[in-house]
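Researcher: Good morning. I'm working through a list of sequences from a screen, and I'd like to move beyond sequence-only analysis. For each chain I'm collecting a predicted structure so we can compare shapes side by side. This is the next one on the list. No need for commentary yet; just the structure.
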Amino acid sequence: MTFERNTGSDRPVPVVFGGENGALPIVRSLARIGLRSVVVSERNDDITFKSRYCSEAVVLKRFDQENDKENVEKLVNLSKKFPTKPVLLWSSDPEVLFINRNQEELLRWYRFLMCEPGLTEIVVDKAKFALLATEKGLPAPKTFAFYSREEIEKNIASIPLPCIIKPVHMKDWYTAYMRAKYGSYKHALHRFATAEELREFIKDLPNIERGVIAQEFIEGRDEGVCSFHGYFNAAGEPTAAFVGRKIRTSPIHFGGSAYVETIHEPEFLKLGIDICTTIGFKGIVKIDFKRNVLNNRYYVLEFNPRFTLWNYLGAYA
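Model: Good morning. Structure tokens for this chain:
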């Protein structure tokens, strides 16, 4: 396989954000069409830096708002190195929010498509997305948002059981306490069948003031979790899409994808497209659904406006 040089080519250079799990799926997918990627990350030990498909490694500061000016300046200087605007790709929520806050300036130097800032904020925020789902009549589980332990206790009788507790933003559980007690973010997710279990879990939970959601638990095996993956152009029209099914997750029931497959399900494909067009979505998206064994209906579990490890499978399929 031959690779495009980073300069002197008519094809724009891909600049890939590392993300919590690294950008390997994106970088490997681009390598299939002969492109090497510049990888940027807030971690100097990002695994994607070691990939043979990484042509250059760039370390940024954490994607906190106070670092935006310095990070944007570094990205602008990076873009100036190339004869044409690079293409920007991202793989984690903090990156989505960083790019969203700085869309106007970054669009002067990079090619990418993202929703208008207000909608992007909504779909990344689990509490706000739950309200949008209710407003638009999307098939989503019953969801309640809380911002203190006192608020949870006051409304605990109204929380649908069994339920699952999630942070409004995943990064709010990336703390030393949560790592020591549970390990990864996914290992902290549980099915709570009683109010007592719920009280015990939230007792030492960090960052509740930033928001947690209590979401109705959708019964069913891991095979009932399916994903829609699509790209919607500036007019909100789907230009590419595929769907897949989880076979195994790690950890079981609540974890990340460990064994997955693409599937041919026209009705499920239509469901994902209909949801995105209903809210006026643009850009890259992954929507996780789960089929409830009690009524055989699919419900939206997660809405992620970013690239994921699934894109590598999609590139092969």
